[in-house]
Design a protein that fits this description.
Strand order of the largest sheet: 1-4-3-2-5-6-8-7
CATH architecture: 3-Layer(aba) Sandwich
Bound molecules: S-adenosylmethionine
Number of strands: 8
Largest sheet: 8 strands, mixed
CATH superfamily: Vaccinia Virus protein VP39
Distance between the termini: 31 Å
Radius of gyration: 17 Å
Order of helices and strands: HHEHEHEHEHEHEHEHE
Helix content: 25-40%
Length: 220
Amino acid sequence: MRSFVLRGGRLTEGQKRALAELWPRFGIEEAGGVLDFRQLFGNSGAVVLDIGFGNGESTWQVACDRPDENYLGVEVHRPGVGHLLLKIEEHRLGNIRIACADAVEFLRLRVADGSLGGARLYFPDPWPKKRHHKRRIVQPGFVSLLGDKLAPGGVLHMATDWSPYAEHMLTVMTSCNSFENLSLSGDYCPRPPWRAVTRYENRGRKLGHEVYDLIFRKRG
Ligand SMILES: C[S@@+](CC[C@H](N)C(=O)[O-])C[C@H]1O[C@@H](n2cnc3c(N)ncnc32)[C@H](O)[C@@H]1O
């Protein structure tokens, strides 16, 4: 069961150019063996996975702020991929690589166990209707897969503005033994100031939605 339905959406001329010219340098093909991160990024810094980055607003901003960390963005929406490639060019970022793929399959096939320094899942599609809940990306199997791919001590950071999804995330995470909750109150955390506020988040806030950050650490 996929967590997305591919949206249409035209590529702008800039995005088309970015996909043609920048993809060969910053893009990762969906198929292939397990990635060698050291070779991919040209250094041995920590690699943080950004799942479903949308337009990549939070990805490029944090990559600018933290040049010592490497960011691996996975998104199925091609215009979003094109947009992030343009940001890489504009800000001359050497620490982002992008896959245009289903993050679940990508994780399973191309990411080595214990290799990720962190993972981000910001504002995943909430699939609010009950009959669609099975499409939500946060499920016990997915969380367990992420647990396998994170190095001990690696942090999984999720955020959502949909309170029933936040509760679901909390339930799934709490029942996964690989993780411990870093919330002092045992549930949600305040938004860390470095997490950029994206269009999706702003839209939710305008609708009066509260935003929930969940931050869990992979046990050693
Ligand atoms: C609501 S948007 C949030 C975008 C961004 N993280 C933000 O905070 O602005 C969710 C994104 O996840 C992407 N997505 C959903 N399931 C995915 C999957 N299995 N693999 C890759 N991307 C996925 C969608 O295409 C969409 O762009």
